[in-house]
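Note to self: user wants both folds in one dump. Writing first protein now.
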Amino acid sequence: MMDYYKGMLGLAESIRNKDLRLKVIDIIKNPKLSNPKFAYKGISMKDAPASLGWHHVEEGGLAKHTYVVTKLCVDIGELMMANYEIELNMDTLIAGALLHDIAKLFDMEKNGKGFDQTSLSIDHIIMGSAELYARGFPEPVVHMIASHFGDQGTTTPQVPEAVILHHVDTLDAIIGTSKTHKLLQLLTQ
């Protein structure tokens, strides 16, 4: 079985901009909120599900979802640049994809039976955007986190990298639901 956490770190290592690469790796390895008034301890990316009731609900589901989304974003980005007159910032695309759900680590906590919601009252999109802003991430990366829900979120994607992330994230979330996964297995047998 693939180690999705290591796969994420491998993708992070491909970010050419050293400052951005180090920031991405640091927040993945050491998830914590910059504001000391927010006392939420982040759970490990290796353990966390991607959600509590929709997609990739298994332990480690967030790392799997994040790795697959990032890998698909990279592959699609490279295909788009090779076949269309479009220029993408691959560092931005990789960083935004790797960190799009990073604040979910503060939204869940481990209990004896699995995971529960914390009392955090701020959505993971807003919290993630605020945290990346506080850490000095480039605006396009912060925008990708803020807009990854598309029309259903706080802001819509305004740059090509954000458009790619939104659609890939949605696709993987749909495929990662247990209902869809079971249906796909039945259809391919």
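First done. Writing the second protein, which came from a different request thread.
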Amino acid sequence: MRALLAAFLAAAAWALAACTPAAPPAPAPAIWRVSDADSEIWLFGSVHLLPPELDWRSAEVEAAFNAADEFVTETDTGPEAAASFAALAQRYGRLLAGETLADRIGAEETARLARVATGLGIDPAALSVERPWLVALQLSYSYAVRAGQSPDHGVDTVLAGDARRQGKRLTFFETPEQQIRVLADLPRDAEAHFLSLTMDQVEAGDDEMEVMDRAWVSGDTATLDRLLAAEWRESGDAVHEALILRRNRSWAENIEQRLDGSGRIFITVGAAHLLGDGSVVALLRERGVRVDGP
């Protein structure tokens, strides 16, 4: 599922008016401010893959980021950590010897996967020894890239590069292994369902994706919340708990602890973690922490 994997894969798709290309609206993605007497923490919803032409850097985001001393992401974005993801994917994403993906998802879903994978330029045979969660990631990533998205232009990547150039301290909530195991530790039935929903979205096309894209870049949190809530209902409790809710609780506690210190911090995590019931924002407010924003 697209929203489960990358929060939102923003695209530059804007309506035409009177047969004349309309200028895209000024970017205004949602941002939240958490503060006390000596601390200021900004929360910004990340989009992990973006087209190079999409302008998302509002004046508010720029000011908050430039003022921060520390930049926090979901996981380590350094080159060594990035290189470790491939090894971790092999370690946790390969099936046991003698087992095939068809054993996990059945003949009908295996036939559907062959059609979907082929349509994305992926050899279905190469997926036959991989676990459903890893196959789902590959399908989602390939689908996004074919639609013009790029990780090089995602919020995390762009801001991490800027943070290094500005000499900010870079920290993260999860190690690469912890992040991989969010999916690798799913129950078998939830993992197979996760792959099935990913194929549903690839087959359905881009209509909902474009609605999400426009909502994200314009800061329309009501629309995003409504669309995400529907996706979590489809995904089931196990997937929602593992990918979003459990991590939100951990991150909210971490942020509250950071308020005991001082300084300016800019945090960017997947936008889905900041919206709706059980979000990081909602949890902080329930704890009595002041959070200014939508």
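Dump finished. Worth passing along: The chain has one domain: 2-8+27-292.
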